[in-house]
From TrEMBL:
Residues 1-30, 31-60 form the 4Fe-4S ferredoxin-type domain. This is Ferredoxin. Keywords: 3Fe-4S, 4Fe-4S, Electron transport, Iron, Iron-sulfur, Metal-binding, Repeat, Transport. It comes from Paracoccus litorisediminis. The keyword 4Fe-4S applies. Ferredoxins are iron-sulfur proteins that transfer electrons in a wide variety of metabolic reactions. SUPFAM superfamilies: 4Fe-4S ferredoxins.
Amino acid sequence: MTYVVTDNCIMCKYTDCVEVCPVDCFYEGENTLVIHPDECIDCGVCEPECPADAIRPDTEPDMEKWVEFNRKYAEHWPVITRKKDPMPGYADMDGQTGKLEKYFSEAPGEGD
């Protein structure tokens, strides 16, 4: 099992999760985070830390696409290990549907 970041992180990018991760497996894109599924140790401490409920275990239905999504971008984006402010307008974006199609950016974030 692994944990993955889903589309509710897009345009919110809370980083509460990264500071509790014991193995530093979060990677930062311009407007979202991902977890490297091969580095995640399945401890689960990140899931309850996400205010947007964007982190899910891969054992839930329809998570295969998110495992591959997380793997793809974790291999190209910089690691992030410290908490940063969420994105401007995050409160309005939290919970919106269709964020992957509307807002996702493949550009890397700053990382640490």
